[in-house]
Each structure stands twice: as C-alpha cells, then as structure tokens.
Amino acid sequence: MKAVLYICHGSRVKKGRDEALAFIERTKPFIDIPIQEACFLELAEPTIEQGVSRCVAQGATEIIVFPFLLLAAGHAKKDIPMELEKVQFAFPSVVFYYAKPLGVHEAMVDILVERMRETGQPIMPDASVLLVGRGSSDPQTKEDFAAIRDLFRYKTKLLDVNIGYLAAATPSFKEELVRIHQQKPAQLWVLPYLLFTGILSKTMEKEIRSLESQESIILTKCLGYHSSIRNIMKERIREADPTGGYHYVSHHG
C-alpha cells in the first residue's frame, strides 16, 4: 500500500509547527493516496523515523517522501536523505520514492504579487523591491533565488528587484535594506519568501523599525499556506509516484 510522508522543516515556534500541520491536514483530501502522515526534520516531533513508523503501522509498503521546503538546499539534498538512509535499515522491505521540494515555480511568484496587491497600496512602476530569503550555504539556493527574481521581474515589469538573505548567504537582508533605503526610493517593497511568520519575520520588522524613516517601506505578509502551494505539492508527489511520472528510488534491498 502506498503512503505519503510530508517532512516539514520544524520550528521552535509552536505556531509555526501548528500552521504547517494544519495546512497538510487541509491538503490531504486533494492527494489521492490512502496513507498520509506528517513529521519534522528537526526541533519537533514526530521525527522522520516516527513518521515512517506511523505509515508502516497502517500497512504502507511504498512511501513517497515529500520535503515540504521552499527550495532544494542542504536539507532536501543531504539532511533528509541521510535520515531516510538510517530509517531504511529499520524498514528494509519498504520502498521510498523521494519527491522534489516546492522549488522554483511560477505559482510562487504569483503569490508574492498577490501579497503586494492585498496591502491596498498601489504598486509604483519605479518601485524598488527586496525579496527576502531564509538563506543557505548551498549555492543552488542563490541560483534558485535568481530564477525567482527573474520570474518576478518578468511578471511585474519592475526593474529594481533585489535579494537579501536572513542567514548563511550574502548579501544579507540588513545590508540590502540599508543600501536600498539610502537611495531614497519612492517605494520599497519588502517581500518575505518564507512560508510562515516565525522568528525571522520579527527580525525583519525590527530592522525596518530601526531605519530613520519608514514611510516608503511596505512589508508584505509571508507567502503563507496558500492554496496554490497545495497544487504544487500535488504536482511534486505525482512526479515522484512510480505509477504516475518519473522517480528517484532509494532502496537497500
């Protein structure tokens, strides 16, 4: 029998964990697979091993693992596969199919634009934009972010679109915020490319408040758990399903 295991990042903030699990609960009816469980990579339970155990206890023999992450950085490429390798020894008869994370997708850029529109502020044609990512030491993160920025430019026709990271990558959010602010743009949009309002959002608010004048700065909501994300999840799970697309199998017989 087939199962899906959704692996969330994990957070020390209870609200963040609850938001992720609630979104997965709302997504389950759209995914046509009998067994569906959620777990966390770190900082929270159930762990990956507990998640796999729960699937197996319900009769799962094949598990599609979906890393519920924005981009394919170290967590998706190293940490989760390493955990799965360990778990595989405990469940040698289970076959695992590994899905891609959400990744670069046009629908994600549409959510950013929606977050701008819902502020009620007109988007000026000469506005400056700062896209804010969590950051990672994995070079692919920067490549993916550049692709997201290009898609965003193409869709909005805005020219001054910048990128800043909250950790582990340069340029830093703080440096870019200060640099762009000093150029006195007519309007500066700060768009968090984050799934939920965690500690990082509070950091952004604090940095914006520390600037001398903040009138022209508009901080939008995070991406949040938007219905478009559910559609991408469905797509990624279908791609990894051996009966419905290509797949990558990790299996120690």
UniProtKB/TrEMBL annotation:
UniProt-recorded Gene Ontology molecular function terms: lyase activity; metal ion binding
Keywords recorded for this protein, A-Z: Lyase, Metal-binding
Keyword Metal-binding: yes
Pfam families in alphabetical order: CbiX (PF01903)
Source organism, top-level taxon: Bacteria
Endpoints of the signal sequence: none
Residue ranges of the TM segments: none
CDD domains tied to this protein: CbiX_SirB_C, CbiX_SirB_N
Name of the protein described by the UniProt record: Sirohydrochlorin ferrochelatase
